[in-house]
Amino acid sequence: MKVLLIFGLVAVALADVTRFEGDKVLRLKPVLNEHVKVIRELANSVQLDFWTPESAEQVTVGISVDIRVPAMYLDMAFTVLQQSGMQLDVFIDDVQEAVDRQIENKGSPRAHSYTKYNTWSEIESWMNSMATSNSDMISKEVIGNTYEGRPMVVLKIGKKSGSTKPAIFMDCGFHAREWISHAFCQWFVNEAVTTYGSDSQITSLLDQMDVFVLPVFNVDGYVFSHTSNRMWRKTRSRNAGTSCLGTDPNRNFNAGWCTIGASTNPCSETYCGTAPESEIESKNLADFIRKNKSIIKAYITIHSYSQLLLFPYSYTYDLAADHDELLEVAKGASSALRSLYGTVYTSGPGAPTIYPAAGGSDDWAYDLGVKYSYTLELRDEGQYGFLLPESQIKPTCRRTSIKMRNCQDPCQLGSSVPAPSPSNLSTISCPYPWIQGTTRHVSSLCLTECQDECKQ
């Protein structure tokens, strides 16, 4: 009887795990308005999972469209799309196989590592350990609990000081399925702590500034993406009048809320919620930034997958008041990335660069007064989408490094500096000032490609 009970429990557990056998991810290239219409009509007829852009409404002529098509709808989708004459390629042939390949060494003991996708319990233990073992550099603060009661933990990194220091805020994991984002924030914390004292610029920066890091914003969604549905994107809150769960947290901030590029349908992946900050996770983050508004000088939110560096605005095509400076900083950072190893990052304001999307956290932070607000979309380079294998975490860390640098007075935007290269990266003055402090130093956040900086 006990054996039957165990088998029954296992069967129930397996039944609750969403599988993707036979699902394919198709890459489409609409070049006519008719193609856009076909994609939108198909999305209204069958269940499609938009990877990029994030919804059918955001599909426009000329952009690349990645959609996951469930196996049961493939024949219909292929027929409709091929009849339209639209360019169509199979991006991922079997989604479940890609999911299975993403996590490697499944039979090995899986303690926390900077080169694997850690579970929430592993990340939570890691945060406690980092704060305990680096008490002179890291402090931990719970800024609130999620809908399901899990803590939202911010790590404050910086040399302890008797005075209040200016700060940078960085978060990862808004969208549950973007696992490389969560991995990156963990790597970044380790990078900052382990290079302090040996890297003069990191040391100078952390002596004069603090960095707030929220490694996992959407904790409930992240847990669910590990245990039940790898493709889960939203939060896990209940919505009145429907069985559809969750809200897109990056549509839930008071920045043109729900006016464009967002949905009022709770079943949509871009559902904006019932009001700005209706999600407890959004409110917790907003409350923390509002409370620390006087010291937070830059806000960076990490997403995937597109290799983009975006800044306000996404909820309108109007240019931000600081557009020219934001663009110059972004272009300089993107140029540095390309100069070092050829990685191409596209930079610009969100709406015209990719598509309009209201309610984003970066737009909200900018409107609050955090001038240097950016969204960094990490790679895939075109093979895996959200399912970047664990073997690619280390190369991603090596190739996309957010490097905190402290620049002296002569470093001004537009000043003459040598082109970055692997040989001069450690000595070059940073030409991208982000935060003007009260001292003679200009603190900056530079995006660079660093060949050997991913610490395991």
TrEMBL record:
GO terms for molecular function: metallocarboxypeptidase activity; zinc ion binding. Its main location: other. This is Carboxypeptidase B. GO terms for biological process: proteolysis. SMART domains: Zn_pept (SM00631). GO terms for cellular component: extracellular space. The active site is at 377 (proton donor/acceptor). Residues 116-411 form the Peptidase M14 domain. It is found in: Zymogen granule lumen. Its EC number is 3.4.17.2. Keywords: Carboxypeptidase, Disulfide bond, Hydrolase, Metal-binding, Metalloprotease, Protease, Signal, Zinc.
